[in-house]
Specification:
Layout (H helix, E strand, L loop, with lengths): L1 E4 L16 H5 L15 H8 L20 H5 L1 H29 L8 E4 L19 H11 L2 H11 L9 H16 L5 E11 L6 E5 L2 E5 L2 E3 L4 E9 L5 H9 L8 E5 L5 H10 L4 E5 L14 E3 L33 E3 L2 H9 L28 E6 L2 E14 L4 E11 L7 H25 L5 E8 L7 H9 L1 H7 E6 L8 E6 L4 H8 L21 H5 L10 H5 L5 E7 L14 H7 L3 H21 L8 H23 L10 H22 L6 H17 L24 H13 L6 H23 L10
Parallel strand pairs: 6-10, 7-8, 8-9, 9-11, 14-15, 14-16, 16-18
Antiparallel strand pairs: 1-2, 3-13, 4-5, 4-12, 7-12, 13-15, 17-18
Helix pairs in contact: 5-11, 5-18, 6-11, 11-18, 14-18, 19-20, 19-22, 20-23, 21-23, 22-23
Length: 777
Amino acid sequence: MRMICAVPIGTQAQFNGTEGAYTRFLTQNMEEDSSNVEMKLSSDLDEEVGGNGVVDNGKPQHPRPAYVSKSGLCNPRNICIAASAIILASFLIGLLIGSSMSKKTTEDNGSACQTYAPGPSDSGSIPIETVPSLDWSAITKLLKDKLTISGIERSLSEFSSENHQAGSGGDEILANKVLTKFKENAMDPWIDTHFVKTQDLPKGVSNKVTFGGKDYFESGYLSYSALGTAQGAILYAYYGQEEDLRQLQDIGIDPSGRVLLVRAGKNSYAEKVANAGKVGASAVLIYPDPADYTLALDAALYGHVHLGSGDPYTPGFPSFNHTQFPPAKSSGLPSIPAQTIRASTATEIMRGLAGRHPPRGWADGSLKNVDYRLGSVNDTVSVEVKNVLTEIQIHNVFGVIKGLVDPDRYLVIGAQRDAWGAGFAKSTVGTSLLLELARAITSMIHEGGFKPRRSIVFASWSAGEYGAVGATEWLEGYLPSLGMKAFSYISLDGIVTGSTFKASASPMMYDLIQSTLKEVSSPTDSSKTLFSQIPGTNWETSAMEPMRMDDPAYTFMTFSGIPSVSVRFSWDKPYPFFGTMLDTRNNLQSKVPNLLARIKAAGEVTGQMALRLVHDHLLRLNTEKYLNIMRIRVNKINKEVMSLQGNGRLPKTLEMKWFMSALGSYGRASRSLFSLIQNSDLEDLEQCRIINDRIMGVERNLLSPYVSPQTTPFRHILLGTGSCTLQDVVTQLAAIREGSASANIDALKNQFALTTWTIQSCANALAGNVWDMDNEL
């Protein structure tokens, strides 16, 4: 055994993370490992870099080999001196080894020295403990003490604003405040600027809906709607979900050419409009039914209808400067006009509708004195959308807390800064919590002795209301680097709107969420944990929700392959004030008792997850979770294939054994990794880095490499959308079973091949070295 003392090292690795130097921050050599410190004799070190071991630029210097002249070696006097030195050194080394072994038996556990088992070769480098860390209980106590209600209150007051729409003067003021806070915390802040296209109403202009000879002028609007005027017979289509439109077709009603009147909720505005476009509708009107939203009847709704994220006029690439790129637009832009209307307007229209009664359950709305009907072909309506496409400049603001062992591996914590109006619940709470977590964690480092192994990047996004535009443009700009180096993303958007814990996340993060909930106290009863207050016997069923396309973390996971989580305290019903001018502090406090205590609890949950991810030797991401999801999907596909082959609708040549083989390879690779972790020395920094890189690669390797990010941005085969996903395989099989015109057996075979090999490739990467792979059937 070797005895190694932990010696203070004055050569901590530095990011080039100054303002405006983000490119250098991301392109830092991935292979550098600041934890590998070479030891030299002090005389040699002094000659090269001076007493502190650092040259003027502040970067660690790697020792150069000492060269001795040939004439010096041939000098007899030097030979005698060298021989005497060797004999003396041998005697001293033997004496020191004996002394060290004697001391080893008497030193207690508090010694600064640690023992390490010898490696495969004595000539190998000796690991040095560069990050003596606090134990986990001390770290969580520090966070709880540093993250205070008084601090949260100060930030809420400072960052509250009545007008901070993306690209506005109010948004820029808040951006400068965030930048100042990061500077005060010595977080080497920088700014990422984009020129993006948004669609807004000109000042003093309203869109118009005409029904029954009466005009209704609506101040709300939906960005990225198709422009112009559309007419058609109105058709009540419930929430505008795919199953709702299918139900209308099943009862013999053709939505083609109709103006669909749908309720807000259940799915996003973009999904409602996309679904309407698929069935040939001419336009869409969306209203908040009082059964879903406790809003004033004249409250206007704001949102966007881009079925995607980011600037839809630079799909797949960043909006740094539009003049550099050819004209392009996202396939997710709708081809039909879409407009939000007030509940009062919807009431007037619904009262004038004739036609059939809707399917069972559709008449459960609460519009007063309204007999819910589907509408007849004579109930015509006109929709006029006057939105204007404009280019705005937005700023994402970043600050970094640098890790000491793997500084080029980082967690990102982000919050949307902009809003349609006050946006208190949507953006102010998240932005305030972002700044308070940054302050608390930097204080833990400077005053409490906390030493993170990996880095934390804090991000304040702009243009979130238009579909995570700021965040997506950043991802598009630095996708290769982020895919390799960012190991997780935590979203703080809309984090507190109620008292019930909910989250949507990568399955790999479920275990981390569960363990965190077991450690964080309830904001209303400190004797209980948040986990104990989750109802039911299956916490995942009760607390975890699928990550939808309008989730602020969705793009990170399905476009960039970064394991992500959105945490929130909410109610069963959607928060009614999102996307309105009524999202104020008073309205949030009317919905959430003990608001500040719940914000603090949300901060402790997200903060502890972040600290776990940057503190532990190995990333708390469970690759085994995806195996269960794959099994469920593949078993469903297998059952459908066997059924279709049994009735002759699918050829026998389409075999499931390759799917099963890929699934088996992933299972073996995951188990092999678990075994490696169980048998690894966690003090071996290089081994930990190798294991962590394999874990990090899973989400990224589940992105299909066979489709373009420009046309199919959400390429995750398990959680994304499009023809590259396992869900689309199921959809294609259903089309074949139903004899649909869209059924295509050749396309299905191609899907089989590409999704199978995506899983197999992910398994191969998880297995590690090519000689460790086990891909037998």
